[in-house]
Predict the structure.
Amino acid sequence: MKSTRLITHSLFCLSLASAMVSCNDAATSTDTKSDSTTTAAKMSLTQAPYGNTDGKEVIEYTLTNANGVSVKILNYGGTITHLLAPDKNGTLGDVVLGYDSLSGYQQTGNPYFGSLIGRYGNRIANGKFTLDGKAYTLAQNNNGNSLHGGLKGFDKVVWTGKTLSDSSLQLTYDAKDGEEGYPGNLHTEVVYTLTGNNELKIEYKATTDKATPLNLTNHAYYNLSAGADSTVLDHELQLKADKYTAVNDKLIPTGQLPDVKGTPMDFNTAKKIGNDIAKVAGGFDHNWVITRTGAGLELIGALYHPASGRYMEVFTTEPGVQFYSGNFLDGTLKNTKGGKTYVKHAGLCLETQHFPDSPNQPSFPNTILKPGETYTQTTVYKFSTK
């Protein structure tokens, strides 16, 4: 595996514009050890039944810190159902899209709200790849391509939950050799941690007994207005990326990595999402190539909602991030929270990842996990106000 998969304890700060935190602030914000002894007693993790599927009980876990920030997670699909964060006046609001019941998350057409994605996040062209001389065929569930793990990816299975502490939840899943067409028995562990610094930390780990493509991520849809605004077009986004993966009309990478400078794809300086979205056919749904300073956890982007003051920073060990502007939401989803209508661009995703279609793109960073190796990925979403 390449060094981009290795977790280190160092934080390499990026030269982002002044909208982002300073190097010293960033190092403090992701140091979850620094506040662990003082806030441990103030953290809580509870659980409640959420239904049943496939003969297994679905449980909703709630992690809460001393600031009132909380996140609710299902063992079904590792799904983030709620994430409450304060605005500039201290008022808590739910900043992720979702449903009021398990049936919502299981309905046909659910766009992966809050879900863990695997084995392979994003698209694999024609649902096919060749590995070690053998051709593999996957489910073609998106315009003839394979998307987000296939017909029954990691988002649609019941994971085994385990409380690690008052602030950490571990989910594990064992995918069988041949499941959804992928080779190898794959053991995956994901740990969600809510810190006293209002960070949601997601740590991924996986091992396999056969070489297999692997690209794990989370597919939460964020709207920092907490429902006050029907779209995210007024949100300001910043991404530390000088290039992106160009795609064809089916959103499959062409292999080219164009420069963002001078194009609507340039978010190196924070700008409103609505400023240039009309200039991009279909809206934003691309992988940005992160401009990294090392192989560790780095600050790679930030999202800001001026009206509420909510500010979300994104740190990751991954080489890419898929910014999706909710282009396919059309107001037709049922059982949404409080019956709210999710219109086009109602939420956005920042999916930290390796690149789409990497098994068929030799020039892209490696996504093949081999026996004896351990896949790791860490992403942190930090919430504050300004």
Remarks:
- Helices lie at 23-29, 36-39, 102-106.
- Residues 1-29, 31-39 have pLDDT under 50 and may be disordered.
- The longest helix spans residues 23-29.
- DSSP finds three helices and 27 strands in the chain.
